[in-house]
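Technical appendix A lists one of the benchmark inputs used to test multi-chain prediction within the project. The record comprises two sequence entries:
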Amino acid sequence: MTTDAVLPSSVLAGQSAFVWKRRSQLLIAAAVFLGVAVLPHVIKDVYLQNVMVLTLMFAAVSQSWNILGGYCGQISLGHALYFGVGAYTTSVLFVTYGINPWIGMVAGGVLSALLALGLGWPCFRLKGHYFSIATIVIAETGLLLAHNWDFVGGATGIQWPFNPDSWWTLQFARDKVPYIYFGLGLFIVTWLATYVIEESRWGYWWRAVKDNPEAAQSLGVTVFESKMAAAAISAFFTAIAGAFYAAFVSYIDPESVMAFRFSLLFALPAVLGGIGTLWGPAVGAAILIPVTEITRSYAGGSGSGLDLIIYGALIMLIALLKPEGILSLFRRSPKRESAE
Amino acid sequence: MSAEALIQVIASGLLMGLVYALIAVGLSLIFGLMDVVNFAHGEFLMVAMYATFGLWLATAIDPILLAPLVTALMFVLGALAYMGVVRHAMRAKANIGMVQIFATFGLAILIQGVAQYLFTPDYRSITGSWLGGQTLQIGGIYLPWPQIYGGLISVAVFGGLYLLMSRTDFGRALEATREDQGAVALVGIDRNRVFALGWGLGAALVGLAGAVLAIFYYIHPQVGGTFALIAYVTVALGGFGSVFGALVAGVIVGLVEALTAVIAPPALKSVGVYALYLAVVFVRPSGLFGRL
């Protein structure tokens, strides 16, 4: 940088503090990922391992959602569509054509990214609630079409064949640990993508677009292209997670991968943890998913609705008590910082 | 397709469209007043249907006579939802839009849970009501009386809403608050009271729709979701906040749905509605009559 010489030293100190803070995030991340990697060797209970897989998967999807919803400020409530496209592409290619799920996974990701670009073109003209409602409607249309499209199994869905445990086909009949590692790997990739994006030109553009699209545009930010890029990246990773989920449960039907509640479940961890933050989706998922799963197993089995009451009350309470997300509990407010 | 069959389809679609408009108008009203999308709107409808069912079960009074009581109860529920939940959500300093979405979504799940707890997930229906199963025959066209009743109620409600908004102090306060919240505070209108009454009115309107729907539709804890999406589409199609837009859009949605069911498998009848909605907002991003 040629301007370094004329900047006051306090700015330089601020810059190096920023760089240090960024690098320390990597250390924290390494420690967290290592901790999670060790967990399945400590917790051997299959039910809890199952909860871990789901937590990691929702953390990864929510991290992807956060790229478009949190950083770029485009509140999509239709990400179940991309999740479903990933799950269905992989399943159809594998079950009908015998194509390896790893290839199917990438194919699903690319297809979703293209779909996001195609849908983004008209949708990004819409603002606020109009955008969110349009995403719901598009995802719901996808759900209806999947229900009535026999090629993808219609309402009956697609059952994966039983194969011996193998990383090659991503199938493990009894062992949950490989899925934990896959989930962790997926989360690390989405986390790193977010980390890189935060500091990149795109990251700054997106935040500018989110805060004030008109001002960003006047400063030369290509608002529309920015949103398109965010949508494609977000959809790509969401579809990869969908493919993973299909392998994990080995049976999919429209309701189990594309229902509206999935769209909300992808947004929710980011919102609860802290929307538009690096760790928000992970913190949100680590609290929300275990609570959801455990209330469902202990209170939901009877169909009495108690699990829904607890779950609904929890979402409402967190939204009302900590609107900035749980992470804000640990962050010093700017006011106090400047007083020090 | 014969002319008679076509008239049949159009007449059924029109009546259902009027009911959709009645379901949607409360949502639009609340949005116009305070920029909040109520994600528990479908659950308000469901509560009203269960309230009608429960009161009918307990008293054996016909649902038509119960409708005013259900509407009044829903007014109270709506005002309480504002005071207990939405008012706090509006105080959020950060990402207020998401807080509103998830606070009302949490409320929706909670209401679903309570309904399932009290009534089990079973499908219920009201049998032996005055209008249940009755049809009106004009020439070769058959129209079910419950739908005719729903359509008439809807027309009456929109007429009443027009008078309320244009002729009463409450209507003017409502209109003034949506125009400029700061200014109404200056002239001594309590913003919170107007909002609470607005939520009461919005819930009462969907409550009346629920009392109508309970006569001819199955009642279960998830029934709200089916109609909520139609209501969002109707409101966005008509333009958020526009009462007149909700009426026009509701009728359009009803007609398109009925006509789609003729040319495509009935399971895909909503696809026609969604496609039309998307086509409209892509051309007019704020709906037919919306201000943005």
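The radius of gyration of chain B is 19 Å. Chain B touches chain A through 53 residues (CB under 8 Å). Comparable benchmark entries are summarised in Table A2.
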